[in-house]
Amino acid sequence: MESDAEPWWRVRPPAALNGDLAQVLASVDALQRAWADVVRDESSAEFRESRQRNLRRHAIETGIIERLYDVDWGVTEALVAEGLSAEVAAREGGIDEGALETIRSQFEALTFLADAAGNGRDLSAHFIRELHTALCRSQSTFKAVDQFGRVTERPLRHGSWKQSPNQAHMRSGGVLLFAPPDQVDAEIDRLVAFYPQASELHPVVAAAWLHHAFVAIHPFDDGNGRVARALALLVLLRSRYAPLVVDRYSREDYLLALENANDGDLRALTRLFARLEVVALRAEIERPLAVAAAPAVGAGAVDVARAYVERLRAMRDEDATQRASRALGLADEIHRHVETALESVGRDLATQFRAVDPDATAVVFTARPPEPAARWWRAQIVRAARHGGFFANISEGTWWTHLRLTALGQNLRFVTVVQKVGHGETGVLALTVFAESLQAASGRQAPGDAPADGAPEAPVAVPLLTPDSTDSVTLVSEETLAPRLAEIDAVIEQTLAAAVARFAEGLG
Description:
The protein has helices at 21-38, 45-65, 73-82, 86-91, 97-118, 125-135, 184-198, 203-217, 224-238, 251-262, 267-284, 289-293, 301-315, 318-353, 378-388, 485-505, and strands spanning 5-6, 141-145, 151-155, 167-169, 175-177, 361-367, 392-393, 399-407, 410-421, 428-439, 460-463, 473-476.
């Protein structure tokens, strides 16, 4: 054992967490109720496909987290949307054949896990071994460091506990030791024995506990992180939550949260899992009424009428109407708050830039349904929703607020958008952002772009941000705005700061 190594971490019973997690978990539960209301039939083709998309995303990202391979974002989105085939990947630039085979085996393992969760299978040492075998099926070796510090390739024994000690190097410079090989059986037994107590906790808390406790044992030579993330899904799926995805954009937060957990504080990991659970639930909220109610090809007039009457009934459902009304009211509240916030920060930004440009200005424009301008920014909104992993329902327009900053002849466009999530009236809203630098273009208009504040043509818009799945806020119609304002303000502040920094760099 090295002198600066920390003692290995024994599995401890799950416990309730204090701190500021109550509101975070309450927001998850509000969205989960909305999700459960929309997804009433889990055997439907729409639900199954939505669930498969989430599992495909997890299968891709879980290997990226471990640096097993790298997959371009465009290829990732195509594989998630259409299936794990080489033909789909090729259209977006292609993927290494070995990486695709690894992803497929991981997806099959996650499907096995989802079935086990649905069948109520208990956690056991045998199940954990099975899961490791399935996840690592395409991996024959792993990298190990010998006693002389040399990196070697060793055979990976699928489903077998490790025979040599393993450890991790932490950001602090120390070394974290995992359970010694001769203690693995006992620690896994402790994990399985404590697991039923986790059912008394919130599912997100229980998932964080199980994930960290397993990682602390590190029972296999390799693949422990992939198994731990899959086990977190077991908890969530058994409690009827969506399978969250720790993606490449969350990697640093994830590793830091695990280090905090090693110090005895599970709150950061729980908070991260709650945030990612919101993303997962939001991605599965679908209500494709038009698809569900469409009459079969060749149907008679009476069948056509019956199908569309059923559709109209669904659209006029009293619960849906109430959800829609509450969502509109909440969207208006958010819209007013964002407008006030951007007007204030816009004045401050203009004041700062006047130190180098006396003519610097900041102006705020807004629109909301049913105003015609509420249908602007379609391309940018759809792009941001794709990065967020959800379907943006913009058929009736959105609530947008546009801060336009002008300095040294250059223009920054920062837009926050409140939009409905999912098909139909789900009662779920999402606040997303996008930012662009505007460059003059004679006679040109950016595809899908809105007119520049009433001008006959738009400048060329160069994106300044690539928001990830968590650069947004999701709200449900039953919520009140006040407890979520800090979260909304934080997203706006962080993304606007990043956009201003990129904009200022271009002023040169």
